[in-house]
Amino acid sequence: MSLSIPIPKEAIEVVWRFFDAVLEDDRIALAGLLMPNSDAALMYELFGIPALIAASGMLRGPCVMRIRRLLALEGCFWLEGEQVSTEGEEVIGHVVFKVEQFGGWRVSEILPWHLEAVHYLAERPEPASDDSVAIMLLSVGLSLSPSAKLDGVEQRLVETMRSDRYPVTAITRAVRMWRDFKDVGEVETHSESAWAAAVQRAITLLCLLDEPIEQFALAYQGEVEEAKRAYNTLIRTLGITFFDARYSPIPDPNELIRHAQKLGAMQDVELREHEALPEEPE
User: Do the beta carbons of residue 169 and residue 133 sit within 8 Å?
Assistant: First the structure.
């Protein structure tokens, strides 16, 4: 059985328009091409054009990019570009773009590897493989954009997590988590250092790493007990679970299963129930 997946021409064209805007440093065009509050938009807000250049594999040198494969999931397409050297037919890398509808097609995520690596961590290249991968996985070589307008918590989060070599996606999602909390929570109840420690603790757990909150309280020169209270308030207010689609840098294993089941496959596979992040004893 063959399965044909129709894709709107505009969903592919937005990728080419993205490259033109980056090369021309066209901020107005980029504002209309990046999905608001997406990883791509936050990455651009925090680190500027250099982050987009790294994520899209442009550091690999002159090349021709061809869209070779795609993955259609609910409400979005993942497009895989194969980068071929201009001097021959040598494949020098891959890059994937997630595109979604928002008053037209927008780019919401950009990663410098092939399609399988989007959902399977074992398929992701090592940081030493090239500069684009190293920047995205370790946030090396990036500086905060002069135009970034961050509050005190965001400023401390970005600087500390970048110093700690967190992936760029973990940093962008930490900023999103804090902004979501600010919209609904009472930020005056704790200090900036406590909130920053709380957010980094939550993001670290979502990276499937369990570092004690005392470590983060120390990093932000705050009090441990206050950081614990802030963390508990954060995760309760936002209802954060492992593999939370809003904040987790680790792909949700349920996403591909749900997609397969809609196509009539994997009907006997049960979706995994994601647990809430553990609370700290106060």
Answer: no
Could you tell me which residues come within 8 angstroms of residue 190 by beta carbon, excluding any fewer than 6 positions away?
A: 198, 226, 229, 230, 233
- Residue 66: the pLDDT is 93
Separation CA 116–CA 136 (nearest Å): 17
pTM of the model: 0.93
Residue that has been written with the tokens 């999931």 in this structure: 73
Q: Distance between CA atoms of 24 and 268, rounded to whole angstroms?
A: 50
Does CATH number 2.40.50 belong to domain 1-148? no
Domain ranges of the chain: 1-148, 150-282
Considering the segment(s) 150-282 as one domain, its CATH architecture is Orthogonal Bundle (1.10)
Between residues 271 and 13, the one the model is more confident about: 13
Residue 263 is predicted with a pLDDT of 66
pLDDT at residue 239, as a whole number: 98
